[in-house]
């Protein structure tokens, strides 16, 4: 029986069909990957917020990474610190530049009990006002790489919480020239944790202004209004 070879036209048609299918599949895969990262970030936001609330429930005060010594009381209006504790990308630049001196690093050391200068090692003594050495937050995979608590894109989370214990929070999530983008977010909770989608390696606070979708501790994944 004579073997029939494929013609050049038939081969080109098959290659073209494969190319079209690949072109249709790539956006779907990218969208799925993006959604997975956002969902993971949202879960971590919730975990951080819950850790703060559990810390307050245990000690009767909020975590205080600004404490001058271990065992110091949490900041309050009477001690000169008012409003909220704000830990953002401005607190984390390069690990080699900031190291364990950053309040962001100290904050997560208080909750995870991992050494801020070497995130692969646990510390055995109390840290700041976590004198009982309790673990309120599990260390993420980034700790095994000697990094701090970062979102799925490699950026630090923005962590806000009220020091007076009042169950209300107001802050600007979006930034921009329009009235809509400058509006404040109002929450009936003393704790807010969030991060913006994408922008790997950009650890400045302005990076969040360019994000379109956000992972949050209060509303899951939300989209920036037009």
List the helices and strands and how they pair.
Blueprint: H1 8-59, E1 84-87, H2 95-98, H3 103-112, E2 158-162, E3 169-172, E4 184-187, E5 191-196, H4 206-209, E6 213-216, E7 220-223
Antiparallel strand pairs: 1-2, 2-5, 3-4, 5-6, 6-7
Characterization of the model:
With 226 residues, the chain is α+β, with helices and mostly antiparallel strands. 31% of the residues lie in helices and 14% in strands. It is built from four helices and seven strands. The chain has helices at 8-59, 95-98, 103-112, 206-209, and strands at residues 84-87, 158-162, 169-172, 184-187, 191-196, 213-216, 220-223. The protein has a five-stranded antiparallel β-sheet with strand order 1-2-5-6-7. Strand 6 (213-216) and strand 7 form a beta hairpin. The radius of gyration is 23 Å and the shape is elongated.
Explain briefly what this protein structure is.
With 226 residues, this protein is α+β, with helices and mostly antiparallel strands.
Helix content: 25-40%
Beta-strand level of the residues, as a percent range?
Answer: 5-15%
Rg, Å, rounded: 23 Å
Q: Which residues form runs of ≥5 with pLDDT under 50?
A: 76-83, 89-100, 201-205
- Form type: elongated
Strand element count: 7
**Which strand order does the major sheet show?**
1-2-5-6-7
Classification by helices and strands: alpha+beta
Q: Output the helix-strand order.
A: HEHHEEEEHEE
Largest sheet: 5 strands, antiparallel
């Amino acid at each position: 029986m004579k073997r029939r070879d494929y013609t050049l036209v038939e081969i080109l048609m098959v290659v073209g069909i494969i190319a079209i299918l690949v072109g249709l599949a790539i956006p779907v895969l990218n969208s799925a990957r993006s959604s997975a990262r956002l969902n993971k970030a949202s879960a971590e936001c919730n975990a951080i917020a819950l850790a703060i609330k559990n810390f307050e429930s245990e000690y009767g005060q909020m975590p205080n990474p600004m404490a001058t010594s271990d065992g110091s009381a949490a900041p309050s209006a009477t001690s000169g610190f008012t409003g909220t504790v704000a830990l953002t990308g401005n607190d984390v630049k390069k690990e080699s530049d900031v190291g364990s001196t950053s309040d962001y690093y100290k904050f997560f050391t208080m909750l995870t009990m991992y050494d801020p200068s070497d995130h692969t090692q646990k510390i055995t003594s109390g840290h700041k006002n976590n004198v009982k050495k309790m673990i309120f937050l599990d260390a993420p995979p980034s700790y095994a790489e000697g990094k701090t608590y970062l979102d799925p894109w490699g950026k630090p989370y923005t962590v806000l919480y009220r020091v007076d214990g009042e169950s209300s929070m107001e802050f600007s999530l979006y930034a921009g020239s329009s009235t809509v983008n400058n509006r404040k977010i109002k929450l009936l909770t003393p704790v807010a944790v969030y991060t913006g989608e994408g922008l790997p390696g950009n650890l400045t606070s302005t990076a969040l202004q360019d994000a379109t979708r956000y992972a949050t501790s209060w509303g899951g994944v939300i989209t920036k209004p037009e």
